[in-house]
Design brief:
The protein is built from no helices and six strands. The protein is an all-beta fold. The chain has a four-stranded mixed sheet with strand order 1-5-6-4, with no helix packed on it.
Length: about 80
């Protein structure tokens, strides 16, 4: 990616409610996510199907601003 470019990545996790993803790695380095709602996930959804949406903005060489959003689904 070039500086100033952005990309949206959606990740669907299928794990038990106790499993979740709260850390993203880009180019081998951990990044600090800015979570919509202000807090990183602390648990997965009861149905075991969670949708993570990340917007990655490259702000400098090997530097990214990351905005994360989690949607926990419920079984019907």
């Amino acid at each position: 990616m070039a500086i100033g470019e952005s990309v949206v990545v959606n990740i669907i996790i299928t794990a038990a409610a106790g499993a979740y993803s709260a850390q993203l790695t880009i180019d081998g380095s951990n990044v600090t996510e800015n979570w919509i709602g202000g807090s990183a996930p602390a648990a997965g959804g009861a149905s075991g199907l969670d949708i993570y949406a990340y917007t990655l903005l490259k702000t400098a060489d090997a530097t990214f601003t990351v905005i994360g959003n989690l949607s926990n689904t419920a079984a019907t």
